[in-house]
Amino acid sequence: MTLAELGWDDFFAKAFAPLEAKGWVPARLIRESPINYGAFLGDGEEIDVVLGGKVWHDAACDAELPAVGDWVAVEMGGENEDHMIRARLPRKSCFSRKMPGKSTQEQVIGANVDVVAVVTDSGPDHNPRRMERYFALIGRSGAKPVVLVNKSDLFPAEHNQACADELRALCPDADVHVTSALTGDGLEVLKSYLGEGVTMCVVGSSGVGKSTLVNQLYGEEWQWTSEVNDVTGKGRHTTTSRELVPLSGGGMLIDNPGMREIQMWTDEQTLRESFADLEEMAAECRFADCKHGHDKGCAIRAAVAEGTVDLHRLESFLRLDEEIEKIRHLAKKRQMTVERWAKRNHRVKARNLNDRIQLEEDERGEWR
Fold first, then answer.
1. Domain match, 18 and 75 both
2. Which of 139, 192, 307, 317 fits a 20 to 30 Å CA distance from 58?
3. Domain presence at residue 310
4. What does each C-alpha distance from 113 to 13, 43, 120 come to in angstroms?
């Protein structure tokens, strides 16, 4: 396996050039654990690597630490010595979300991803509002959005087509395909996105057949699959860790555990682009600071009343906008807290230093 087959190109070569003189080698991270990473070298050798202290301390947040899909500079260790990550190369793209729970931190799902494939179905998992979140996050990442409306064998063809058309309307840039993991229908279309150096990230809820699709792409039972509950239509998590795997036909796949939460980690501009139709209507509102609630002269509310805009789509836009503002507020609050602690620690250190200097002067005075 060559560097090019792993996704290496001129962008990474230029970033790595200053590091090569130090004797370090490029490697791509394929998995991570609490204590180390797995990585591929240019000759296809798989090694375990650990994070260097400087890389850890230089990272302003967890999202800046190396993640699956990242290219890193590795200092090869000798016998009985660890291979050490000395630097993380810049990313061409980064697919991430807000970390689950109350945290305001960003969680990287996959770095240097070219295509993000979202697996859903036209049945219990069909949720346009959640797909809007996916589209917003993929748009920010810089990757190509692809949607697989899977399990088509379980629903009427017109039902599957209606679901696909609805998703295409939500994101015209997305390629939407109706597939069946059971029959293999449409998998050739998915394979068409893969080729030398191309990295695809596969995401979706548990129980939508994601692992079965991944197994067929691998050509073997790589991930365990489990049965789906007949009542809820949901399944257990069958993928337990994030991992990048080269495919025999070319390209690489980042498989992910089923996601229970798709919380926003994006910016206002990306959100506006994802809801461009509403943004154009907002320009017709009477007031520039219209909140699109009960404001007089709101063009979007008028369109909702006329039936040309889906009320649920507007509510989703307002909810996502509120989430982004909340993240921004919490992040700013956290930054202020960190700065206060830093100033306090600086004062404490300065006071301790002055006390130590004074003590040394007093001791020297006693000796005189």
1. yes
2. 139
3. no
4. 17, 21, 20
